[in-house]
Amino acid sequence: MSSRIVTISRQYGSGGRDVGRLVAEQLGVPCYDKELVFKIAEKSGFDVSFIQENGEYAFSRSSLLFDLSVHGGMPAGSLSVYDQLYIAQHNIITELAEKESFVIVGRCADYILKDRTDCLHTFIHASVPFRARRIVEEYGEKTDNPEKVLRDRDSRRQAYYRHYTGKVWGAMKNYHICLDSSRLGVERCAKFIAEMAQI
Amino acid sequence: MSSRIVTISRQYGSGGRDVGRLVAEQLGVPCYDKELVFKIAEKSGFDVSFIQENGEYAFSRSSLLFDLSVHGGMPAGSLSVYDQLYIAQHNIITELAEKESFVIVGRCADYILKDRTDCLHTFIHASVPFRARRIVEEYGEKTDNPEKVLRDRDSRRQAYYRHYTGKVWGAMKNYHICLDSSRLGVERCAKFIAEMAQI
């Protein structure tokens, strides 16, 4: 395919992970999502649960609080475990990009691979009611307030992205294709992205 | 078609107008762009040149300056000519939406028609080099600094949009489909939008 790599960024609950899986199936390439967590664990020595919890989420909804917490009290020149994890992820993603074609979901891959010309960068978003229903019915979130869970997750992704890239998460100009899965449907989003990756 | 109306918002030079024309051709419906200016002129009594200059551009790049200039010195309760023009455009667009299917380019139509469920809202953006080349070679802009022309036009569209809608122009969440025409090509953007409008 012309775009050897497809990056999929997504709002929580939008079905971006399913879009990624379907695009990868249609292109016949691996989809790095949870599989990447195991690769990172293997190479970095970090626990899978630590990577899942901290590999693309700030632990605070505030970017400033996250910045201060990650670096506050650290000796000058030393790296926090969060920074070490980001660097490990960064290195694995850039190494994979040198070697093979794939679809990758999240993990700032759009930013990490932004200077390559063989990537198609996409973003999946959706309405709040669509996402609220999905996280309860399909992801099994146990909550009385799914809207709050959505706000919290997306704010923590946003804070993480801003901390490590200096950019605004979800700014249209960083993506070639941005689609509303609640309007278009997960399957149609995947079909279009796969088509565009092959041109 | 399921989406009776397609709104196309666009960065200056991105080819959004061409996308609109092609989508309308594929759907067999009118494309309201310059044609709308004549309709507005006919109904409102404003000059065509006044509508073209002020129908979607603030005369300042600063939203605040535009706000102050439009309303500064106006007696309480009275409307500036800019407000009158916005209201005329608003009324014509909502009246058309009641009567017929169409594609419409710009003019805050995404916001004006946001509560209808039969609209597909789209945004076309593109890289600066692609747009700079297009405005000189295809739109015939006479300038030594096309990048400055792009910044100026988009800032004035942004200020206008913020003034009349209270929203951020080009925020992904307001659109079902956002496409980078410099990566995907104008024809492919149009083809996908037309397909999605028919579903």
Report on this model:
Two copies of one chain form a homodimer. Chain A has 199 residues and is an alpha/beta fold. In chain A, 54% of the residues lie in helices and 12% in strands. Chain A has ten helices and five strands. The first copy, chain A, has a five-stranded parallel beta sheet. In chain A, helix 1 (16-27) packs across helix 10, helix 4 crosses helix 8 (146-165) and helix 7 crosses helix 8. Chain A is globular and about 50 Å long. The first copy, chain A, starts with a strand and ends with a helix. The mean pLDDT of chain A is 90. At the A-B interface, strand 4, strand 5 and helix 10 of A face strand 4, strand 5 and helix 10 of B. Strand 5 of chain A pairs antiparallel with strand 5 of chain B, so a sheet runs across the interface.
Reconstruct the topology from this structure.
Two copies of one chain form a homodimer.
Chain A: E1 5-10, H1 16-27, E2 31-32, H2 34-44, H3 48-54, H4 63-71, H5 81-99, E3 102-105, H6 109-112, E4 119-125, H7 128-137, H8 146-165, E5 177-180, H9 181-184, H10 186-197
Parallel strand pairs in A: 1-3, 1-4, 2-3, 4-5
Helix pairs in contact in A: 1-10, 2-5, 4-8, 7-8
In a nutshell, what does this entry contain?
Two copies of one chain form a homodimer. With 199 residues, chain A is α/β, with parallel strands linked by helices.
